[in-house]
Amino acid sequence: MTIKLVTDKKIAETSSKGNQEKWFDSEENVWYKLDLFGYEALAETVVSKLLKLSNIEENGIKITDYDMTKVMVHKIERTACVSKNFLKDGEEIITIAALLRKGIGSEYIRNIEKQSSLQKKIDYIVTNVEKLTGLDGFGEYLTLLFETDMLFLNDDRHLNNIAVIRKENKFDYCPLFDYGAGLLSNIRDYPLDIEAKGMIKNVVARPFNCNFVRQMNAAEKLYGRQFEPDFTNDDVEKSLENVDEYYSERYASDFKDRIKVCIKTQRNKYR
Ligand SMILES: Nc1ncnc2c1ncn2[C@@H]1O[C@H](COP(=O)(O)OP(=O)(O)O)[C@@H](O)[C@H]1O
Ligand SMILES: [Mg+2]
């Protein structure tokens, strides 16, 4: 299906990876995120399907559903993923970066950096977010993000990509979203002619700019394991079923192969 967008409101947001172009359709109340450097929309969609096959929702955290689609933007057909607006009336998203900046001042960055270990840095963030929001269990939520980012190689979890929902003065958890940088989707940074296996080792985790397993282990030491994936190789195949509808023959099979290698490699590290 091709959808013509009725709004030209482009949302600007700083991101280390550059911004995936996003459009909000106010009539349908949905967000579209367009492919930028590779197959970001596909990565977002595949991850959302696989996250559903886990204990996450049982534990009270929601997952944003993304689906593949095509949109006409400036008369050009583009591949995108679409998700329902998860904000209800009166709610807004507050990024952790904005929350800490407002609550502590911009020195929060220095305060994090001067903590003597990764665990202390995580604890600093968690303690302050809980204090500023009144939320319970932010450490567990952050651990879940680090675990899922490691499994799907999402290297864009900077503090502007971790957020909470605010409604007046009450805070709540955001549904999991924004994994589009995962699965080596940026083929400018991770060219298709280089073997995935070799690049996977060098992908750097955010926000602490270290190895994914190290970042995840530090959080798990503090808050315990959160994420229990429950998907099979067949489920991965199924999540890739319609790729040919959205990408040319030249690319589709490469994208699928790479996604499978990423998930298999990372899952072996998630024991
Ligand atoms: N499904 C959604 N519901 C509510 N807000 C959304 C949704 N998708 C995107 N947004 C808004 O757009 C911003 C950027 O979306 P995000 O998925 O983080 O894109 P990017 O890949 O550019 O970081 C979010 O912080 C949020 O404000
Ligand atoms: Mg984002």
Question: What can you see in these coordinates?
Answer:
The protein contains 10 helices and 8 strands. With 271 residues, it is of the alpha+beta class. It has a 5-stranded mixed β-sheet, covered by helices on one side. It has a 3-stranded antiparallel β-sheet with strand order 6-7-8. Adenosine-5'-diphosphate is lined by residues 11, 13, 15, 19-20, 22, 31, 33, 64, 83-87, 93, 161, 177-178, 180. Residues 11, 13, 15, 19-20, 22, 31, 33, 64, 83-87, 93, 161, 177-178, 180 line the site of adenosine-5'-diphosphate.
Secondary structure topology:
Elements lengths: L1 E3 L17 E4 L4 E5 L5 H13 L14 E7 L2 E9 L6 E5 H9 L3 H6 L4 H16 L4 H14 L11 E5 L2 E4 L22 H5 L11 H12 L9 H7 L3 H4 L2 H21 L2
Parallel strand pairs: 1-4
Antiparallel strand pairs: 2-3, 3-5, 4-5, 6-7, 7-8
Low-pLDDT segments, ≥5 res: 1-16
Sheet with the most strands: spatial strand order:
1-4-5-3-2
Element order, helices and strands?
A: EEEHEEEHHHHEEHHHHH
Q: Average pLDDT, to the nearest integer?
A: 93
Helix content: 25-40%
Fraction of residues in β-strands: 15-25%
Assign an overall shape.
Answer: globular
